[in-house]
Design a protein that fits this description.
- Helix 3 (43-70) runs parallel beside helix 7 (166-183), helix 6 packs antiparallel against helix 7 (166-183) and helix 8 runs antiparallel to helix 9 (225-252).
- The protein is globular.
- It has a two-stranded antiparallel sheet with strand order 1-2.
- Strand 1 (36-37) and strand 2 (40-41) form a beta hairpin.
- Helices cover 76% and strands 1% of the residues.
- The protein is an all-alpha fold.
């Protein structure tokens, strides 16, 4: 069991300040998707966007996880946190359409951040002299972080020689796999899951903030019934998505569960990534110079990614798996399939398209809401 002191851990202001640097960097990442080629986002730009977004969210996960288990909000913790914030500016500055010229800067900062977090783990060993299992977990996490930093550094000469960045993607995937299956796998007794879930929720809220800014373009131009209609539909989509996540967080997720939280944090990497994609999918809907089919597929798949990983949270972290959950997931999958087909059929009629999106989002929300009520009734 985790200690009473751990259970009382609250999100501190320093953590929220730290999150703000990620809001800035994610905003920089999003600029990559404004690089169009052949009627849609250039493949190289989308690949760079995907890798930089996943890398940044992963850095946030690493930091949050360390603070959840070992953070005491000491001077040392704050100093290491501010160092990472400073390094994140180099990552943000290196995230641009001409990112090739900033590749070395980006990767040095990325590697130093990983080394910073790994060093914090090693420094924690002196406080765990009599905790054998805890020390083993510290060594594992530090080793994973240093190994990923090594892969990131190796990408610098490889990129200069081949102009490819596959090692960057390999570093991200290595980190996800290694932490989930070998890192803190046995650290259930050390993790304060209420704090961890709250931190993830706050990051999602920041991401919704980016979405609210993104749909502001729907309110531009001369006032008319048509412009007001599209602005209202875009706003309702954001509301429906936000309420869906809120119901999961408040009524379905068991925040008192004894868990290491690794799967929860991993799922949130893709939930946040999907929300970023939805933001751009909505912006792309207003771009007349983009091809209809790819932007429809992009938006539709982004919804699948978001709801798919949201349902996965309920599968592994719900208060109780009621018998209707599998049926609930099947109905949601059928609904998404119908939605995808209708979006493709009406891809030339944006008035219908955006209305279909609102209907789909709110039907899913009602399903989640009803399931949340069922969860409450059996607890």
């Amino acid at each position: 069991m985790i200690s009473e002191q751990q259970k009382e851990k609250k999100v501190e202001y320093i953590e929220l300040i730290y999150d703000l640097i990620f809001v800035y960097v994610i905003g920089r990442n999003n600029l990559l998707l404004h690089n169009f080629e052949g009627g849609f986002v250039a493949p190289s730009a989308f690949m760079a966007y995907t890798m930089t977004t996943l890398a940044v969210i992963q850095i946030w996960n690493y930091t949050t996880y360390y603070f959840n288990i070992y953070g005491r909000h000491s001077v040392r913790d704050h100093v290491f946190l501010f160092i990472n914030m400073f390094l994140m500016y180099f990552i943000g500055e290196g995230t641009r359409t001409d990112w090739q010229g900033f590749h070395t800067q980006y990767h040095i900062a990325w590697a130093l951040i990983l080394i910073n977090i790994g060093t914090q783990y090693l420094l924690e060993l002196r406080n765990r002299k009599d905790a054998k299992q805890n020390r083993q977990q510290i060594y594992k996490m530090a080793s994973i972080l240093f190994a990923e930093a090594l892969i990131v550094c190796a990408d610098i000469p490889v990129f200069k020689a081949t102009q490819t960045t596959w090692l960057s993607l390999a570093a991200i995937l290595f980190g996800m796999f290694a932490v989930t299956f070998f890192g803190q796998k046995k650290s259930v007794e050390f993790v304060d899951f209420p704090h961890l879930s709250e931190r993830a929720m706050l990051y999602v809220v920041f991401t919704f903030g980016e979405m609210i800014i993104g749909i502001a373009s729907y309110f531009e131009g001369d006032f008319s019934i048509r412009s007001t209609y599209f602005a209202l539909m875009a706003f309702l989509i954001v509301v429906g998505l936000f309420l869906s996540y809120g119901i999961f967080y408040d009524r379905i997720i068991d925040r008192e569960k004894q868990t290491n939280g690794l799967g929860y944090m991993l799922f949130h990497i893709f939930i946040i990534f999907a929300l970023n994609n939805i933001t751009f999918g909505l912006e792309f809907m207003r771009e007349d110079n983009l091809l209809l089919l790819p932007k429809i597929l992009f938006l539709t798949f982004s919804f699948l990614l978001f709801f798919g990983f949201l349902f996965a949270l309920g599968s592994r972290h719900s208060k109780a798996r009621c018998k209707k959950y599998n049926r609930f997931c099947i109905y949601a999958s059928i609904l998404w399939t119908i939605f995808a087909v209708l979006m493709l059929l009406f891809r030339t009629a944006m008035v219908i398209n955006i209305a279909l999106t609102v209907i789909f989002v709110f039907i899913i929300f009602v399903m989640i809401y009803n399931y949340g009520i069922n969860m409450k009734s059996i607890n």
